[in-house]
Automatic annotation (TrEMBL):
Keywords: Membrane, Transmembrane, Transmembrane helix
Transmembrane segments annotated in the record for this chain: 20-41, 53-71, 91-112, 119-143, 155-173, 180-201, 221-249, 318-336, 342-363, 375-397
Upper lineage: Bacteria, Bacillati, Bacillota, Clostridia, Lachnospirales
Protein's UniProt name: DUF3360 family protein
Amino acid sequence: MSTRQVNPNRIRPIDLIPALSGLIGKIALVSSFAVVWAQVLNITTPDFVFKNVQIELIIGSAVSLIAALLLPNMSPAGTLAPLVVLIPAMAGYGVHPFVLSILVGIVGIISIKTRLFHVLISLSGIISKTSITMTFGISGIMLSLKNLQSFFGDNMAPLFIMIGISLISFLILMRKNITWLIIPISAAVSIVLPLIFGFSIDYAVTTTLPNFNPSYWWYEVWGVGFGFDIRTILVTLPFAFFAILLWAIDTVSVQAMIDANYKEDEAKEEIDLDRSFILAALRNMIGGTFGGAQTAALWRSFLIPLFMVKRPVRYSSILLGILGIIAGFSAVPIKVLSFPPLIWSVLLFGIFLPFINVGIRNIINAKSNVNRISIVIFTTLGVVFTPILTWVGAVVFEKTQKRFLKNKD
């Protein structure tokens, strides 16, 4: 991805769409990381998840705001969502969350400076991109529906109505080529309908000002200390390398969305990957120092709607940073945006369904039935097992296919 400035003008109301989506996505994903870490480490600290979301939101938003003001083509540093499923395995091996944060930052910077990261990305062709896009889309939809069903329990009527209204809206907007409007529509529907059916939003906040003392976080909140010893570092290092591989896979899915939303002759704002991932690496170390549970990557829940509205990254990033800081320090917006129907509806219709839409279009436009079948197979591997299998399998297949066709010619 090269750096190219497009349509440099003032902030517009439409820039709020990616900012709102990114804010909701951040709260959902950091909550997921914090919940899983708390489960595997038996953390019983009151409000652990809320405090973690608050500290991560403030740090991530502040870093993104500063970066947007200084450099126009940098992606905000978000959350590496695929890594959350590996937290139980990492904890079982003795991985320490703080050590992981620092090592991911160090290994990430080294991989970018040595160009290893770009080598990993360049291996991916259309089959790899489509398979990964479909894998993330299907896995995300399954996760969203599972969490929505868990929230509504036996009262399924509002869930079906909510999904029905949002789905019909998405299809209408897709025909009119304004699918980015699904984010505010699904957000409104997912708040109003549950309230009508008797559900309520918990506004209660026990504390508003976050604590930025690393010792407080790692000794009192997490209760695991800083964890820096040779054994822990050696155990954690392979998972840090694995996170960088997930960075590359995550980037492939973002590239697929860019290709799908912009025509070949259409001017586009492309992300400076080197600076963006160095920012993610630094943000990861900062967040880890102050007790954050997440692992950083590109802010995907921000970027996908951004490419849909086709606006410069800088303006939405500025709004995202401002909104995130306000939400983090005031705390109450975190409670509102943590409302499960809101979180999972916006992610379902604003992020995961567009992934599926792009994947299906690529499958239809594939050059051969062999390519279509291979995409389905690799997608299935990713959904059932891990996206790593999807990416590795698709890359090997593409290289083998390319070599075979070359020898045949």
